[in-house]
Amino acid sequence: MREPTTTAAPGGLNTAPALRRCVGDPDQFAETHWGRRPLLRRDADFTDLLDLAGVDELLSERGLRTPFLRIARDGQIVPAARYTGGGGLGAEIADQVRDDLVLAQLATGATLVLQGLHRVWPPLRDFCLQLGAELGCAVQANAYLTPPAQTGFATHYDTHDVFVMQVAGHKHWRVHEPVHPDPLERQVWGGRADEVKATADGEPALHHVMSPGDLLYLPRGWLHAAAAQEQTSLHITLGLRRPTRYSLVEALLDLAAEHEPLRAGLPLGLDLTDPAQLAPHLADTVVALSEWVAKADPDDVARRLRGTAWPATRPAPVPPVAQLHAAETLNPRSAVARRPGLRCSVARDLERVHIELVDRTVSLPAGCGDAVALLLSGDPVTVADLPGLDEDADRLVLVRRLLREAILVPAN
């Protein structure tokens, strides 16, 4: 089997409980499987994350709207109008999931795809947030409910790695090696449908009937198809959107727009489609780009990458009413902590300390720098213990501001 062009081994593997629950030994997984080849594990239990009763609750009681539910039949997506409708009096929407129409679809062999469960189902929300922190990438959660003896989708590949967790019933998986290793997000399988079909007709690299508690890891690009057996099947798919070297290339190209020689215009009348005319200008451009890239500042590249990496994962929820009450009733004995999953960076100058968030920057007096550093360390901190500020009144002002900015939360 092929080796990856880059190794993305998560840090802190010895204390990675979510990853350990998925793969057993995180260090062995990072060395042998991560981005390289599939992993099959047995005898776990994922029903605390989602079970059949939870699926019923989502479909009938949570007021889901599209696109949180998709339905597929014979490999084709069913139009949403066939299973959605108006929300009733006082709900001016037209695309709310109707449980009776979903029942009719399910009864006639359709597969239900519950999407974005890391946004709407608390157990999966919390698990994905923890797993993403351990892996160093965004994690999304979908669930697939397939009636007996049905195949939801034909053989295909994903452009992100996945953990597949079998929750109920049994499903037969056929896995083939990639036809296009390490595909980027825009390199979807439909553009290689003939190669995918030809490979899928051959002997699989892995075939296995997944039972409740089984987990399958597939790196991006590995072909797969799955068919439910004699019972309704429910499995959770965690999509692992790990960064690639091309992510760095894209950031470098964005930054290249700031380099004047690369913004220079080309001569009048130049035909860019003529290789002979293009060649000298291409050579000059490659030289200018190479010289600029060789001097690229990691700080600038990291700042550019934050624009895509940080919004991909939402931090833990903040209850607005309770959060405001915590700010109003704050006292020196109150304990607070950084909001779980919050992505931010801190910079200081002579006059201010700046907390850079995904959508804004919070600036505070420079004297708050040591207190901010401690507050953002991740460990619970008592207000009275904050360093660098002489008065409890100043400490309270700082912490109230950061509670209202949803940077801190009350420590449990």
Word description of this protein:
By secondary structure, this protein is of the alpha+beta class. It has three domains: 13-241, Cupin (Jelly Rolls, Sandwich), CATH 2.60.120; 246-297; 320-410, Alpha-Beta Complex (Outer Surface Protein A, domain 3). 33% of the residues lie in helices and 21% in strands. The chain has helices at 17-23, 26-32, 52-60, 99-107, 117-120, 122-135, 193-200, 245-256, 260-263, 275-293, 298-309, 320-328, 369-375, 392-404, and strands at residues 39-41, 69-73, 76-77, 84-85, 96-97, 111-114, 138-146, 161-168, 171-176, 206-210, 215-218, 223-228, 233-241, 335-338, 345-348, 352-356, 361-365, 381-382, 408-410. The strands form five sheets. It has an eight-stranded antiparallel sheet with strand order 1-11-8-13-7-6-2-3. It has a three-stranded antiparallel sheet with strand order 10-9-12. The protein starts with 16 loop residues before the first helix and ends with a strand. Mean pLDDT is 92; it is low at 1-11.
Put the structure in a nutshell:
Keywords: Iron, Metal-binding. With 412 residues, the chain is α+β, with helices and mostly antiparallel strands. Helices cover 33% and strands 21% of the residues.
What features would you highlight for this structure?
3 domains, alpha+beta, Outer Surface Protein A, domain 3, globular, eight-stranded antiparallel beta sheet, Jelly Rolls, three-stranded antiparallel beta sheet, about 400 residues
